[in-house]
Amino acid sequence: MALALEGSLALARTIALCRPQVVAAYPITPQTHIVEGIAKLVADGQLNCEMVSVESEHSAASVALGAAVAGSRAYTASASQGILLMAEVLFDIAGLRVPLVMTCANRALSGPLNIWNDQQDSMAVRDAGWIQLYCATNQEAIDTTVQAFRIAERCELPVMVCVDGFTLTHTLEPLELPSADEVDGFLPAYVFRHGLNPSDPRSLGTLVAPEHFSEVRHAHHQALLRSMTEIEQADADWAAVVGRHCGGLLEVRGDPDARLGILTLGSVLGTLEDAMDMNPDLPRARFIKLRSFRPFPTEALREACAGLDVLIVLERAISPGGGGIVGPEVQMALANLENPPRVHNFAAGLGGRDLSLDLYERLVTTVTQAASSQPFSIIDVDTTLLPEADR
Amino acid sequence: MNEQPLHSLEALRARQPRFRGLESGHRACQGCGEALAARLTTEAAGPDVMIANATGCLEVFTTPWPQSAWRLPWIHSVFGNVAALAAGMEAAQKQQGRSTKVLAFAGDGGTFDIGFQALSGMMERGHDVLFVCYDNEAYMNTGVQRSGSTPHAAMTTTSPPGKARMGKRHMKKDILSIIAAHHIPYAATASVAYPSDLRKKVRRAMATEGPSFLQIHSPCPLGWGHDGARTIEVARLAVQTGLFPVIEMERGELIGTLPIRTAKPVSEYLKLQNRFRHLFGADHRARDELEHLQALANRNIDRYDLRGVGPEKYDTEGADTVHRGGDRWA
Q1: CA distance linking residue B140 with residue B221, whole number of Å
Q2: Right CATH number for B13-303 from 2.30.110.20, 2.30.29.30, 3.40.640.10, 3.40.50.970?
Q3: Binary contact (B49, A198; C-beta < 8 A)
Q4: pLDDT-based confidence at B326, cuts 50/70/90?
Q5: Within this chain, do residues A184 and A278 fall inside the same structural domain, yes or no?
Q6: Chain B residue closest to A205 (CA)?
Q7: What is the CATH number of the domain that holds A100?
Q8: Which residue among A125, A134, A271, B318 is buried most deeply as judged by most CB within 10 Å?
């Protein structure tokens, strides 16, 4: 039965169903409602876990790490500046191959200060060695969160579930929550083989010299590549339980025969799908929902792009002085296809700029009129507000 | 099999086995105060512990992968998070209904400076963690740079004396007062020169529920510029001059001191160390700084009433002359 729930509250209840033993978090907009929801469940005796309300995100990640290596299922949530403050620890968690789950309520980064949604925060820790799964809807966020714990624990890798701030976290809509039995059947009790135990003392996080460090990195890279199988398997197994799937590594939607493709991460997909349905006169598009950005599903992406003439990569972050972040990776993955599509790379919806329904028409018109790939650009920039040199 | 003489050191050791959390064979320098302090601490803490270790010498010299000198479950994460890491380990223990004590180890950088916020948070939240600060008064692992714990006027590579400077311009941070302001159940200072006192404090902290804090003065022959064979002598003089007061606090209140019968002049301590060499020149500034350091020592003696006049059993003259199983083995 669907319940009318705010995305964050639905996530709090989902996380409780996953039976975390230690939750550590520091408040930051737009993550707050998730953690408040968990705190209330603990206060009401509905969730038996140690809720550690720490003094910074650096400590939130560190408490979660400490708990996970000491044998408890651990969870944290953050966003934006919080992700950057914990960045040092995020790299360490992944490098030590410690399984834990974090929700990133995606938000822009300072400066200047902006509390609204884009994906610059999770993109900033792209190379931390975490699995990163992007959710297109709140229902996907719920289902991905359950899957994330199993993926993390089976792969001994941390998983970041990326949920667009406000757009998803603060939206109230009808959502299906799994039952406790469904989650318990899917997610076995937490076990970490390399943990701290006085009867079998190990040293973790030692000093590793040049003669072994490349091997550590290689193993970590291989583990992430291998995790693709587990991400797909978790989605398939969970679909068998609840009858909903999230698309595995990526999902092809829209018109599968279209020669025009649009690749997105996160919630903007719904807007584009609605816009296409509302404008039957416009060219149809094949939507590629990239769910797993790390690991990057090169093979699946090539298959999904077969037959495309044009591919628009629409992203929610930029690399200033470079251009897009996802765009170049997609382009590289497709480069040795026999007839690779022309890739156009745009950023949109930065710092919460509204992504309205006319976005679809603007994208489609721009690329169908262009003979060659356009240079990377940010959509919807009012250059009249800028000094001459910056236009 | 080789017969060992009945009274050989090895035979005596074999007859008095003691738990060793930190084995020999690690890569510390000769005379390293921190290595000694960590060994004494883990011996007294016993095997049912798990350790979170901040970045620093102790982490580096004990765990050159694939080797480790630890016989205890041990983790190093990053420099500034050790108190939070330990807090997470403790939360996990608590949630699982286990009682293995969590120890957090850090140098003075990981305590006074980069790890301070996490330490304050851990104490405020009341985690059952013993935080041990191995205080060698500078960033030794990176090559002797000044920290918030470096004493006034000391030479480090980032507080060098010169025409315009006489070493570190700022005071050593009074960390114990800051810890005391958190009103945690137990906080103390100790010195590697007084091992029985140190062990007693570790055992007391182990028996304390909630956060406890131990600051152990640990000379660094390399960073302080003294002979590695004189580590204990240097450490003892720091206490006997009053520059490093050895005290105990409960809930922020002073409950005990290691009394000084006759305070030694600070110059006796300072002159053994190259980091204070510039204070012994003809320069009038050198004389001023020496007076300043003497005043700091006097202030400690007054503040904590370190002049032992009562019937205390131990003092800075005698507490180190202990024997296993002897009267002073508290």
Answers
A1: 10
A2: 3.40.50.970
A3: yes
A4: very low
A5: no
A6: B76
A7: 3.40.50.970
A8: A134
pTM as predicted: 0.95
The beta-carbon neighbor of B120 closest among A55, A68, A74 is: A55
Number of domains comprising chain A = 2
Rounded to a whole number of angstroms, the distance from the CA of B215 to the nearest CA of chain A is: 22
Give the angle B148-B134-B326 at the CA atoms, nearest 5°: 140
Nearest-CA distance A388 → chain B (Å): 44
Candidate from A62, A71, A205 with C-beta closest to B92: A71
Q: What is the largest CA-CA distance in chain B?
A: 66
**Residues A320 and A232 grouped into a single domain:** no
Which residues of B are less than 8 Å from A48 in CB distance?
Answer: 95
Per DSSP, the residues of A76-112 read EEE-HHHHHHTHHHHHHHHHTT---EEEEEE----SS
**Nearest C-alpha of chain B: how many angstroms from A45?**
14
Under an 8 A CB cutoff, do B89 and A196 touch?
yes
Q: B62-75 burial, b for 16+ CB within 10 Å, e for fewer? A: bbeeeebbbbbbbb
Q: Per-residue confidence at A375, pLDDT binned at 50, 70, 90?
A: confident
Structure confidence at residue B330 (pLDDT): 39
> Which token pair is A22?
């230690």
Q: Do A207 and B91 touch (CB under 8 A)?
A: no
Q: State the pLDDT confidence band at B324, using cuts at 50, 70 and 90.
A: very low
